[in-house]
Fold this sequence. Notes:
CATH class: Alpha Beta
Number of strands: 3
Number of helices: 3
Helix content: 25-40%
Structural class: alpha+beta
Strand order of the largest sheet: 2-1-3
Largest sheet: 3 strands, mixed
Order of helices and strands: HEHHEE
Amino acid sequence: MPPKELRGNSRAYWAQKIAPKRAFQDETIIKIREINPGFMGKIKILYKAYYAGKPIDIDNLITGMKYAQDCLQLEGIIDDDTPDNVISVSVEYQRVKTMKEVKLVMEVSKI
């Protein structure tokens, strides 16, 4: 899940977001490099949120994932994150039994 400081309903001011943003982007870049998808051009993104307890609202979840989405451009998977390249962004939720199972999977598909 995106750090709480980066979500749409966060009350954190910009200086409080710097460290979580960098850590989140570093983690995302590591995972992208492990997969090494190469250039994809036009894409669609599906976030699969596995949650226990109260789920994060869709708008807050997508806002929190902005910095992970920016990594797609930084790593050369897309030219930029405009609507011309990112055709759709959607979210699916699935309840899990324990907090250990809570995670967010970002699936990127070439169109």
